[in-house]
């Protein structure tokens, strides 16, 4: 269940849950607000009370997913801490999302729409891009001398790719979610590879 606050939050969350399932199964174009209301076990009128259209519902799901990335924006480089520890913390900020059933269900839905409806998916991508947090960390560590990163943007994409390779893409193509224990190994391995490539020691 997706977390929401305020009155009738449970109904809002029920509709979001149901819409993720509907969009994933039918695709955006074939999805039906009638079926969303049936899946959510609420009236069609209730669905339209919260979401005026199917497009608004899709964008709301993207916004919910974007909120899950908000914690990453608060991670800042600390010159008084070891960079390896900070990279592990950053890796786990991503890793916690990659082991969340709700987040990954939304991610799978949005990825599927990339193929079906590129324009709609492109608008979503900008809201859920968290590469900036990785770039900022790597750039600051480079400027401080804890890492040697000629191209922070490229290095950030490499770091994210390492984390996603065994946790994100296998799930998107039908594998089970990785466990917390598996994610721990993925984070540690990814950080080790980043340190081998960009470490100054």
Description:
The protein has twelve helices and no strands. With 201 residues, the protein is mainly alpha-helical. The chain is elongated and about 60 Å long.
Brief overview, please?
By secondary structure, the protein is an all-alpha fold.
Tell me the overall shape.
Answer: elongated
The N- and C-terminal alpha carbons lie at a distance of 45 Å
Q: What is the mean predicted local confidence, pLDDT?
A: 86
Largest sheet: none
Q: Helices and strands: which structural class? A: mainly alpha
Q: What is the C-alpha radius of gyration, as a whole number of Å? A: 19 Å
CATH superfamily of the largest domain: Tetracycline Repressor, domain 2
Key attributes of the depicted protein:
mainly alpha, 0% strand, 73% helix, 201 residues, Tetracycline Repressor, domain 2, Arc Repressor Mutant, subunit A
Give the topology, please.
Layout: H1 9-26, H2 33-40, H3 44-50, H4 54-68, H5 70-73, H6 83-98, H7 101-116, H8 118-128, H9 131-144, H10 152-165, H11 169-172, H12 180-198
Helix pairs in contact: 1-2, 1-4, 1-7, 4-7, 6-10, 6-12, 7-8, 9-10, 10-12
